[in-house]
Amino acid sequence: MIVAIDYDQTFSADPSTWTAVIRLLRAAGHDVVCVTGREDKPFWADNVREAFAKHGLADLPIVFAGMHWKREAAKAAGWDVNIWIDDRPDAVALPNPATLYHMLGTNAARKRFAHRVLLG
Questions:
Q1: When you count CB atoms within 10 A of the terminal residue's CB, does the N or C end of the chain come out lower?
Q2: Which domains does the chain possess?
Q3: Contact 44, 38 (CB under 8 A)
Q4: pTM
């Protein structure tokens, strides 16, 4: 099983607990990867790498999604994630059209816009 964990407001919210969870998952034979919305640029990426190294997880693979959906970025990096741990599940992937349409509520203009974007 491949488990992805987000960095900001997920791992960073309680690094000690998430470190224990990552170690437990790895000990059980699972792969764990960090998939973050940050870009792989100085300071932003260095901060993530340093935090994992500080907790003994310097070898944890990190996917920097940047402006891409996290699921797409992970797949492009070779990770077909089974379970996502993220404080913002909406950042993992675009919802299916029916869910998005429902999320827009009764605003007709928003629904027309979503219809154009999703269905062309």
A1: C
A2: 2-87 (3.40.50), 90-120 (no CATH)
A3: yes
A4: 0.78
